[in-house]
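Hey, resending since the last one bounced:
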Amino acid sequence: MIMKTSRNRFLAGAVALLTLTGCGGGGGSSTPSAVAASGVPASADTTKDLAQGTITGFGSVYLSGQKYETDDAAFYRDGEDSVQDDFSVGMKVKISGDFDEDRADIVSYDEDVKGPVDEAFDNATSTLVVMGQTVLVTPGTHLDDNLDLNTVIVGDLLEVSGYRGVNEVIEASYIELKRDDNTNSYKVIGQVHELDSDAMAFSIGDLRVSYATAEMDDIDQLVDDLLVEVKDGNKNYAPGLLTLQATKVEGESYARPDELLDDQGDESGDEVEYEGIISEILSDSSYVLGGLVVRQDPQTTFIYGDASLLAVGAKVEVEGDLLNADTLDADEIKFSRNGARVSGIVEAVNFDTRVVRVFGVDVLVPEE
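The structure tokens again:
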């Protein structure tokens, strides 16, 4: 079942409901896990603590299960000043804050693709296509309350946040239905492929982008595999056309919020907690995670698994230090844990055995 996300996030009712998660973990847990925080350093420090992950809860912000205090945080959505109420569970965000105090100073959200639907949702494959980007919907995908994927047609506007994996497919963590009157531009974030400097064009997914008349920002030189944000400020993209005349092409950082790009200098030494899907194995000690090259050594520790589980398609959280803009040395690698969840009316409670029955399912509640 695809999860629906409400901005209210709480349901008032006369019957108390219990939600229990067994062997939970990753982004699905409601209990903070021991993962790295991210932060803005003191002015004398040239390194930064950064994190990219999925929002899993509020009351401050929980990123992949870790709580970040947001009392004094600045929120940005698509580069514009925003507030926490404009954010939803499932959005993939970048955070900069204080590593030691679990404090967020910047919370920044930029959707991975926003624009017209090229191909409607296919229940058989659980996929749809938005502006040339294949989007995979999973049981963990959060949908905006106004969205029913089975009623979406070609030409409808969708906003998708998620993780690129094998063959550049985006595993959606959040999808929202947009209106034309509240959409200023179409956009897609991804790596440059099949660059043709003579034709001034490149590809992201199945979308062919012309940058002949585009404004270039935060880019020294376009090269294959460079992470960029492409905007169509004129909203001229036609569904199914798979070609786009860009009005702006902007360089992106994998973990650093855009609001820090002008102050980034040398990225080496930044402490990062980064979530993504392995798209390529480079060697026994390195692989590509959402475009970021991750390297491990004998001192790298593993949680909920070991190095034998590193494979194409695996979703992991990596904590380590950036060597440069696109290479990370891993100190810790955490695998998503297999989980099961049951939600419903509590039928029975046995305090002696710590067993709760919900819908006929006996769930053992672990000791604190």
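The chain has a mean pLDDT of 83.

Sorry for the duplicate.
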